[in-house]
Amino acid sequence: MMSKSRKSGTVSRKDAKEQNKRLSLSLRAFAGKLPIFLLLLGLFVISGCRYDMQDQPKMKPYRGTKFFRDGLSSRQPIEGTVPRGFLRSDTAYYTGKKNGASPAASPTPGTAQPGNAQANSYPDAVDTFPFPVTKEIVMRGRERYDIFCSVCHGLTGNGDGMIVRRGFRRAASFNDDRLRQAPVGHFFDAITNGWGAMPSYAEQIPVQDRWAIIAYIRALQASQSNPATASASPSPAASPSPTPGGRE
């Protein structure tokens, strides 16, 4: 009887070891497949919300819609509001015009005018810079002038830039009396809105850089005002007065 019980105890221990061994192998196999299972589960969850996130309802610019009564997806600003960063409370700084300025009579093209008349040709343009001019501003203006203005007006402002030498219409000379006596606001208006054959540079040149360029133009005019220098160098051909109005 004792031998049989011992044999049965030995067999039960062997069965328990086999079961534990099989269980450990199963757990190892499951642990090896667990990352794959989690990946498949994640893909299933992502695919369930893909439609809402990728094809979510929204308004696209310049595309029609039936949601609004006017059929346009782009909305106009609310009346009486100003977009952030677009407040233009300083009229002189942002337009080069005096506060409350009204449309002024432009000079007649091709008509010579005395000095006082030239100075009064732009009554609405400001005569002074809206901020103190420093050396750094002038140097910034020189950099921007060389990039945007020198190709037409030349490095010295005589209107003999590179494209003029290649046959393009001669640009205005900043050393003509007409532009020497013109207020700084006129130059700002010309850069902003264009003048004659010159297009508007409002998109390419920020407001601060426009004033910096004008400061450098004043420096150029001062550098070219020496009578001895003017007599030693050939006089630039008289540039035709630009047609007023439109884009300067």
Question: What are the salient characteristics of this protein?
Answer:
248 residues; mainly alpha; Cytochrome Bc1 Complex, Chain D, domain 2; 10 helices; 49% helix; elongated; disordered C terminus
Q: Which class of the domain at 114-232 in CATH terms?
A: Mainly Alpha
The assigned structural class equals mainly alpha
- What is the residue-mean pLDDT, rounded to a whole number? 78
Global outline: elongated
The whole-angstrom Rg is: 39 Å
Q: Into which percentage range does the β-strand content fall?
A: under 5%
Order of helices and strands: HHHHHHHHHH
Name given to the CATH homologous superfamily of the domain at 114-232 = Cytochrome c-like domain
- The CATH topology assignment of the domain at 114-232 is Cytochrome Bc1 Complex, Chain D, domain 2
> CA-to-CA gap between the ends?
121 Å
Number of helices: 10
User: Could you give the count of β-strands?
Assistant: 0
Poorly predicted segments: 103-113, 228-248
Give an overview of the whole structure:
This protein has 248 residues and is an all-alpha fold. It has a domain at 114-232: Cytochrome c-like domain (Cytochrome Bc1 Complex, Chain D, domain 2, Orthogonal Bundle), CATH 1.10.760. Helix content is 49%, strand content 0%. It is built from ten helices and no strands. The chain has helices at 2-54, 91-95, 115-119, 135-148, 150-153, 162-165, 177-180, 184-193, 207-223, 227-232. Helix 8 crosses helix 9.
